[in-house]
Amino acid sequence: MIEWRIYLGFSLLFAVIFYKLSTVRFFSMYKIIMIYILLLGAFHYFGLFDQLFKYRETFAHINAGSTLGVNLFNVETIKFLFLAIYSVLSQLFGLYIISMGALFLFITESIPFIFGVIYIVRNRIYLTDFERFLLLFSLVYATIWCLANDNLGTAVRIRMFNYIAILIVAGALYIKKKESEILCVE
Known about the structure:
The protein is mostly helical. Helix content is 72%, strand content 0%. It has one domain. It contains 8 helices and no strands.
């Protein structure tokens, strides 16, 4: 995967690491989120994201009106974490609504995605190992492209893979939950 697309290879590697952590009883969802945030801060502090940020800067020269204008390069680590969260909310969740087209995409894409994420979190006890891994891979993949991208047009194309993963897992959980309810009634 690394030879094909380096970001996919890193996504796969870190998804495996996070998956292994998630199988250990000590690591709850909240502890994994804290480790994830600490790793983001550490990676930023030690400059491991610099290549992603240099690529992100290439979007600053595009004057199409769909660039966030968020610079993640050479900022303090705490500021980076807040800007990274803003970038994820704007790009992955589609909360940067600058036109009627963006509003349409928010309604048709982002709202089902947000409800899917909420449904998964509320019903996470039904997750299989594969679904947990798929979610972790999707999280790491989204992190990489949200940090490397500053253009909303590009985000619309790239985030589809994250949306599909979330909707597949949410649909599978819905079916499993309904099947378990039917079995409990019988």
